Batch of 2 targets.
Target 1
Amino acid sequence: MNMLNIWFIMKREFGGYFATPVAYVFIIIFLLLAGFSTFYVGNFFARGEADLYPFFSLHPWLYILLIPAISMRLWAEERKSGSIELLMTLPVSVFEAVLGKFFAAWAFTGLALILNFPLWITVNYLGNPDNGVIFTGFVGSFLMAGGFLAIGSCISAVTKNQVIAFVLSLIVSLIFVLAGYGIVLDFFSSWAPQPLVDAISSFSFLTHFDAISKGVIDLRDILYFAALIAIWLFANALIVNARKAD
Amino acid sequence: MTLRVEIEDLAKHFGEIRAVDGVTFSVSKGEVLGFLGPNGAGKSTTMKMITGFLAPTRGTVRVCGYDVSTDPISVKASLGYLPEGAPAYADMTPDSFLKFIADIRGLSGADKKRAVASAAERARILNVMYQPIETLSKGYKRRVGLAQAILHNPPVLIMDEPTDGLDPNQKHEVRTLINEMAEDKAIIISTHILEEVNALCTRNVVIASGKVVFDGTPAELEAKSRYHNAVVLTVNEIDNTKLLQFVKALDFVADAELLTLGNGIRVFPKASAHITIALSERIREQGWEIASLYAESGRLDEVFRSITLPSTAGVK
């Protein structure tokens, strides 16, 4: 594994976001939605507490919609334009290419996330929040974004069509979130044995993100996201290898 | 002669379809190998296997001594490749695109600058370096692809239809560039433009239905033509049919025919011999005056058809 190659591919891909208005449109929509949902859906003021829980708790839902929009182009576009033949005949390995692209998308999401800092300033201006909790919230949200991106990146390697990549990623992401949602779990718990319900719930982003967003750093939650990213990216590399020439 | 590319019994099957079926040839330094064949004959598939983009079903590829199945990275590092259609990252400018390629090729600092500048100059894209590639014309896009392929001065250069879709001037420029580089590289170009055989190549490999049907020099390829050394003869004073009768009776003539276009006849020698002088002497002996007389070198399009069609028909 050549780290420099990963870095060069990441740099190129990251620059690619800003070559078109896509990056700016995405960041603006992300900030608007995040802000809107925090104040209106999350009842930021009415709760009367100086924290960013309303902000973070809505991230899984935001990501379901927005992350596939970032990840859909990662491989589908390479395959459609034929540039994948160029990339895969340069002296780089598939894993380097997959990681480079993934890190670019992740860094971009991280940037969009950090640009929410005015909320952090607001809450510090209004009260005395626990900034440690807010920090872990950002870290957790970032980790979870990585999970969504790994799913989206893998799915984008399956098709040449970005719209299909978007829709499929959205559905798979939805499944991964909903697996921990109360209504879904209630549906299963009415007939399925408890271990199965727990298993389904333990696969959910919600279950693992909720604790982190409240400031509880559990190694298992971090491992969950790390393993999830690793598995999806591994599958991603296999798919790219198998389908690059189709 | 240093062998740079060695291909042995290379095959690629897509299910039932044998896209490439046991191709063997090699290319040395200083050679420009013209890889010919009809569309769908397996040219691109073969090139994709040489460059490590596709894994072969069977057979071996060695580039500069490295085996593509065991050491693909070394193979990819020692060759420059222009894929069919010259794909590139459309939203980048040639400048940033070439810098990215240079990074990946392990060039940095002054070397990187020099490599990018030299490739851009040789491919003649200096005037479009800061325009997004998607806004460039087809000819410029192709040249950006060329610049990318030659950037690291690779010992082996593989180009899939480098002049396809270019206008005659652009074709000429690309051929000039390839000729300039030919001396110290092993070059493989695929084409179905037959004029490039003479303009570019020192050797030709023709494939049809995934199999090699010819491997030799352009002259040898032309010699396979029925028209090779055929003589076109025009004599004004006598009737063409009479002339035809006379010529057919000569001992060194295999056959003769009336020209379909224009006035005169075409004379086919026995065993592709040179018969221009002998023929003109016999005509003069008759007291006839020759209006024009010239030998043909052979018709590549006819050779191309005759060696690629039978096997295509055989498969069906």
Target 2
Amino acid sequence: MGDQPTPEEIPPSDEEREGLLARLSESLGEILVDSHLRPHEDLWLRVRAQNWQDAARAAKAAGFAYFGFLSAIDWHIAPEGRYEDTEFDAGLDEEDDEPVELDASTGYAGGDTRFQLLMQLYSLDRQLGLLIKADLGEDMTVDTLRDVFPGADWHERETHEMFGITFHGHPTLHPLYLPTDFEGHPLRKDFPLLARQVKPWPGVVDIEEIPEHLEAQLEAEVMAAFEAEEGGA
Amino acid sequence: MTATSDREQMAYVAAQAADARVNVELDTGDMTLNIGPQHPATHGTLRIACRLDGEQIIVAEPIMGYMHRGYEKLCEVRTYPQCTTLINRIDWLGSFANEVPFILAAERLMEVEAPPRAQWIRTILFELSRIANLSLFLGDMGVQIGALTPVFFAFRDRERVLNQIEEVTGGRFHPNFDRIGGLKDDIPKGWVDETRSVMVKMRTFCDEMEDLLVGNEIFQARCRGVGVIPADVALGHGLSGANLRASGVDWDLRRDANPGLAWDQIDWRVWTHPDGDSFARYWVRLQETREATRIVDQLLDGIPSGPIMAKVPRIIKVPAGEAYISTENPLGEMGYYIVSKGDLGPFRVKIRTPSFNNISVVPWVMKGVYVPDVITILGSLYFILGDIDR
């Protein structure tokens, strides 16, 4: 143990991930909605939310026994924007004066709903990671994974308070981080970040322009320092 | 006289009755004991509400959120370079290591690769943060069980490592030094030799800790067989770092899922321990600190020459996409899932911190242990509160 595998011993992860995808799509069957593979990087699977637990069990049976994390993504574009009130922050580049166009897609492996669940697992034997997503319907409910991965307990509590997603079968869905009387779900895009709206953000530009009357002087100083270093070396 | 004898007689009867009750049933009742929020073993403000039956714990429920700062939300309103300032403050004892996976994830989306020199210096600073972080644990674990000397040694020697980090980055705790495409600056002159001598001192420090604690009879009595976590429980809870390796699982992201840093170019090994108890966790971290000094030594010998910054635009826009990169941080697996929509800042960042998963095993492992062992277990699981609460 602990010996470094030489590069020749590592099989190309492309084939490995493709084989894995083929195997998983066989075992998942119609549970699997879509998938996305980025060679040498990661593999994304999108499964049906009503079979969320089955998908986790199938992945575990395929060797993905290490629980990484569980969370959610809100694909809704924030109605308040990113609270930028300056040209720089609004994405107006000085050179091309064009506002940033937000990509309208909903991520790798696609998505049809606003909220998407996301889970990451590892297979220690294959040395591969796996990302599983699921679209959440209107009822925002999904089965708990506590019985499959005990570590999902706290992650589900966090996702519940931050996104308002209910995990069916989870006995203790009380807040983990937030105070008990907190209202709202902070990580939803329509939850305003009040501190940012009340007070304008000071971080406007990161490159300050040198005042004209100092420019020549600074340049001379820099040149002198440069020459001194050159002479010394 | 009579009064006294009456009293004596009554006392005797009462004592007899009490004895009889004890012999019939021992009704202790449950008691709730709060460990924390302010307790040295909690490294911050973590509260563990324990229900006790006598000296034994029935239920232990960690209560956190005292330090929740909402970094995932704050990252959504910042640009990528501004995010690293926040990320520094997650695990404040090994801050540089926090920046690296975030920057690597952003680099993957931008399809930028840092030059080899930058990757090597990154790896060196990464390992230095590991030594700074773990050396404090090595001393602190002694304090948890009543040995005061080791922690003074630890603070003394950690300072040397922090000085080396400060000399390069300008910050002892919050370097904010890693940039998309490379590093902010090169290493100063003479730094390599100084670091080499510091590594010698750190190895001496590890030997001291081994002499002071590992061989100590009290330390062994308090740690051996306490808080045993079997491998399957560790995997299911997503334990990482030394906590996982102390349960006999041979898994280290530096070797098994290296995201491109210089670890695969040097010779080192992953340490594991089969026992899964508090002692194993201490022992693995001690070996890892030692191994890290060896890694730094080898890296210092082979720093390639060349630029430290790749060509990146002045205003960083990250193309749309998703990336998850995690590295083996001092505390365990730290990862960032970045969702980008082609904007100046991330659309969503999920921060996977090691301590969050590591502490989620507490209710399982605390069931049935005695009160003094709580401190040993908490100390040996080793968490930083900023890393749980983010």
